[in-house]
Amino acid sequence: MNKMNINNQDVNNLSLNPNAETKSLIARKISSYYNGRNITPNGLRLAEDIFRIMVKDVEIKVRQVLAESLKNSHQLPADIISSIINDIDSVAVPFIKHYPDLSSDDLLKILNIPSINKQKAVADRLNLSHELSQYIAEKCSEEVVGVLISNNTSNIQENTYNTILNKYNNSEDIKKRLVYRAELPTSVIVKIAHTLSEDLKKRLILSHNMPSNLASDLVEEVKEKTTLRISEDYSSDKQIEELVHQLYSSNRLTSNLVVRSICMGDLKFFEYALVYLSNTPILEVRKTLFNPAADFMVRNLLRKAFIPKAMFPAVFSALKVIKEIHFDCRKSNRRSFAHKVIERILSYSPNNDELSEEDIRYLVSKIS
């Protein structure tokens, strides 16, 4: 036992005062000997027998110290590993996260233990395999998947990202963790880009090697949303017309911005934008937009304002929702309105011609 650096005083202390502190000290010493280079075969067997006793100790602190001391060991006997893994979370979690010799089968068994903390410990392991990442994405909770994404050493391939996006497409936490991940496939960036908050879009642009056209689109989108927030604060026609005039004069009154405004329920901004872009008086614009039998006149007005034909369904969907619910963007919820417009677009069928999936994704991206 001397080779374990356990002296007579340690033995006396353990026999006279076998409390948690004394046993914890012994656990650290034996673990240090076990992990050292000078251990003998007899010492190895003796140390392992002591571990088998300590993993069953009634004192939680003793088991915690032992698991912590052994987490960087190698080739521990299976029964000792099993005892630690199946212990309470405060004992098992550090060991599960760090012990290097856990096999894929071991880790799969842990992922099926009904303990979210143990599952998170697996998701946070260094260099987690693609197969285990996929299993976590398919079988585990959002909280565990979030830890997996934040673990930049985990191997997550494109099909796993697709699984995550399909399951958690409305989760802001998952999107945030994806944006803050060190590397993302371009396909994932494209899928989430237009669904992010402005802060996350900025982070995405700064942190990832994005296609230049997508980065430009996102920068423009942030500017558009900022502009419409300014418009929302204005109450009078004069203020809104002045804002539109400034945008028009500086060549910033884009089709995207104009269509986004009506899809967010900002009717006055949309009306004055058409005034400037089509050179049509405000009274005529309003008369045209709300003439129930004048869809063709609305189309002509949009063409005159150089609004792309692909955006017409979004405009008509928004106008119909405004008419139905008498929407006022200064008194109502814009997000709720936008969702109603999206629902309209998804079922939109002008002249019985269905929109293509690409058209729908494009229009929805301009509203979300």
What does this structure look like?
There is one protein chain. The chain is mostly helical and 368 residues long. 68% of the residues lie in helices and 0% in strands. The protein has 23 helices and no strands. It has helices at residues 8-16, 20-34, 41-54, 60-70, 78-85, 89-98, 104-111, 116-123, 130-139, 142-150, 158-167, 172-180, 186-193, 198-207, 212-233, 237-249, 255-263, 267-278, 282-289, 295-304, 312-325, 334-346, 357-365. Helix 2 runs antiparallel to helix 3 (41-54) and helix 2 (20-34) packs parallel to helix 4 (60-70). The longest helix has 22 residues, at 212-233. It is rod-shaped and about 95 Å long. The relative contact order is 0.04.
Summarize the structure.
Helices cover 68% and strands 0% of the residues.
Q: Could you say which structural class the secondary elements and strand pairing correspond to?
A: mainly alpha
Spatial extent as radius of gyration: 32 Å
The largest β sheet comes out as: none
Number of separate helices: 23
In angstroms, what separates the terminal alpha carbons?
A: 69 Å
Extract low-pLDDT stretches.
327-331, 350-354
Compute the number of strand runs: 0
User: Approximately what portion of the residues adopt beta-strand conformation?
Assistant: under 5%
Q: Which oligomerization state do the chains in this entry correspond to?
A: single chain
